Amino acid sequence: MWAFGLDFESRTARELTLPDPRPPGWGEVLLRVEEAGVCGTDRELAAFRLGRPPEGELALAIGHEAVCRVLETGPGATRFAPGDWVVPSVRRTCSPACASCSRGRRDLCVSGGYLERGIFGLHGYCAEFAIDRESDLTPIPAGLADLAVLVEPLSIVEKAIASALRIHEPEAETGLVIGAGPVGLLAAMTLRLRGLRVAVHSLEPRGHPRARAVEQCGIEYHSARPPLADIVIEAAGTVQAGLLAIRSMRPLGVCAILGAPNASGPVPFMDLIVANQTVFGSVNASPADFERAVADLALFPSALLSGWIHRTGRNALSFTLLGEAGRYLKVVHRIGE
Ligand SMILES: [Zn+2]
Ligand SMILES: [Zn+2]
User: Which domains does the chain have, with CATH numbers?
Assistant: First the structure.
């Protein structure tokens, strides 16, 4: 079958030919991949700064933001029927399973031995077909299929925001998101849905498509110093964003770091102590986060979200991954052409 990914021998991102899928086994489902979104992780993969092929293989099909339809169900798989729309999760348990993986929370894997579709040791969804256990799939109502490519990035946001709101006491009133990419926008909309007054900070000047996308959501945009907030979400993936996020908490504030890399710099330890503030990191998402993502997606203004998505053919994958980061918020490739 057709696939697209990384050839670790020649260190190029290119079309691959993978074996056609076997029939689905016990509890498994055969999927036809309809589309796959591209994010910063995919661009890191295409630059060979990240990623690992399946054991014993020399290539890795990428793609972890997927929307699929069920083609065939294996014996014992009763949750789905052919034609159903689904979004697969990304991470698979470590083996032997650690305490977190054993209790169904592989997003909290503590052994580091987990695998990730399209990233670490398992082929991803830039491939015509995929096989998954039905427990790794989240059902998507047909009416939401057009936006379902946002479910995986939104699941990351759901996990971080649920943790932040749980930690913050008393009830949080204000939210600040650093970064105006798809994850930042989804974080801002989710915080607002939870009843917070929200602002977004990013470096793009006013009038830039990303700044406009924030304002179109009815959310305050700041390219200069942002207001302090109870809940701060770093979604820009830079050291500066991480440090700014930590310094942008109100007393009792909670800050989630989602993308900033390791750095040395001024960390205001004493300020954190005196103001009872919390900083935490968050990665991946649990099955409940995926379900919350689907529920919230249905509540967001669909016309606005549709405007973030630019769909193109699968033959444009190398251009999207290796070319300049374009002006579109979310480039999505039609895989099942
Ligand atoms: Zn991604
Ligand atoms: Zn584990």
Answer: 2-141+308-334 (3.90.180.10), 154-281 (3.40.50.720)
Q: Is the pTM of this model over 0.85?
A: yes
Å from CA of 290 to ligand 2 middle: 19
pLDDT digits (tens, 9 = 90+) for 235-276: 999 999 999 999 999 999 999 999 999 998 888 999 999 999
Alpha helices in the chain (DSSP H): 40-46, 99-102, 151-167, 182-193, 209-216, 239-247, 269-274, 287-297, 302-308, 317-322
Which residues crowd ion ligand 1, with CB under 5 Å?
Answer: 39, 41
Tell me how far the alpha carbon of residue 267 lies from the centroid of ligand 2, in angstroms: 30
Q: What is the DSSP letter of 228?
A: P
How many CB atoms are closer than 10 A to CB 49? 9
Residue 203 and residue 224 in contact, taking contact as beta carbons nearer than 8 Å: no
Distance 94 CA to ligand 1 centre (A): 20
